[in-house]
Write a structure and sequence with these properties.
two-stranded antiparallel sheet
């Protein structure tokens, strides 16, 4: 995700920001952002999960959409498959994860920066009941 796409502390909540893009988004981007909004608090989907769920594109395409437009949705819920926090935005994402009680694996003392990773086995969301019938 690019620095410009992420909300800073002075920016309004993501729901308000989303309306800024509503008339200018490509269809695929709109669909990716809709999936990001469906992910419940405390859960995550990988870039590849989103592409697979949409049955279109791949992890890189989803990542590109999130980089360009991700600030309009809960961007911290669309993640890397290895559970690593988004480089450059680790502390902001970590704050969201802790508020939402997203499962984390604490970092070992040897880990660079001592930052936790997402516990992907527990945090990963498969689309569940809320997503039925939505594409």
């Amino acid at each position: 995700m690019s620095e410009e796409s992420l909300p800073d502390d002075a920016r309004p909540e993501y729901e308000e920001t989303r309306s800024e893009y509503a008339d200018t988004l490509p269809e695929y981007a709109e669909r990716v952002l809709e999936v990001a909004e469906l992910i419940p608090p405390g859960r995550v989907m990988t870039y590849g999960d989103v592409a697979e769920w949409l049955e279109e594109g791949g992890p890189r395409q989803v990542g590109r959409v999130m980089a360009l437009y991700g600030g309009a949705v809960p961007w911290w819920r669309v993640v890397r498959a290895d559970g690593a926090l988004l480089p450059g935005h680790e502390l902001r994402a970590l704050g969201h994860y802790r508020r939402e009680c997203t499962p984390l694996k604490e970092a070992s003392r040897a880990a660079e920066g001592h930052l936790p990773r997402l516990d992907m086995k527990r945090a990963r969301w498969d689309g569940g009941e809320r997503a039925q019938g939505h594409t």
